[in-house]
Specification:
about 300 residues; alpha/beta; Arc Repressor Mutant, subunit A; D-Maltodextrin-Binding Protein, domain 2; 2 domains; 12 strands; about 40% helix; DNA-binding transcription factor activity
Amino acid sequence: MNNDQLQAFTQVARTKSFSEAGRALFVSQPTITSQIKSLEEELGAPLFHRTKKFVQITPAGEKFLTYAQQMLDLQMQAKNEIGALNGELQGTLAVASSLTIGESILPALLHDFKKAHPYINLKTEITNSQHIVEMIQRGEFEIGLIEADLQVPDLQSEAFMSDELVLFAAPHVLKDSEAELDLETLKEIPLVMREEGSGTRSVFESRLEAHGWTKQDLNIELELGSTESVKAAVEAGMGAAILSKSAVRKELELGLIQTYRIKDLNLKRNFYIVRKKDRALQLVSEMFYKTIMAGKFSE
């Protein structure tokens, strides 16, 4: 058995799909099928039950999965230790990031890391927190930066930076000019919201749930898929919005918006770095992870 076969097997086991495994590993479905068949012939047992509708791992496959992952982890650890002997860090750092972190925080983090390790390459994907979790589970990325602690059983999540959400609107849009608003006032304010699955929205709705509220209690006028589009809609006077304070710092300094506190609603939160539990990372990913966790970032 070889590394490609082990990668194919563990990816099919994760995704329960030969075609999805092929896409994740950038090879064709027939290649995945051939690799699995070769493994099954070598082991003398079927690893998956296949039908036109689903793929299910067999008892033999479940048993082999533990060993296959251990072999891949040992390979990664060996490469990391040998690579560390060479001095200069090389390879591609692939990071998936939520929109707020990707637009406001990640560029500076990558700039500093690239400056310290000039021979690495960088790859990023900016999307919402739920999608990041799914990509890490599928093995498409090793590390993700998200805005909510989503408590996914097979992922390790650690806080690396503090943040705070704020309610903001264009000047003079809200009738109440006070810097602090009562919670009940939210029901009357037209809101521009991030889409379902966004970390910002998940945190905001969870804090409202603690007061017995649901999203049906809000006056949601518009849902948008990016931080920048939400800010543009607010600046145009379409309503108020909830975003990270770090995401609206520039607009606040320019006087384009006004921020408001909401009485009795705690909107402080953390940003989290996520990875697969009990899974060895490539050396470049491991170094970035350690750099983030040693940074003690705060607003």
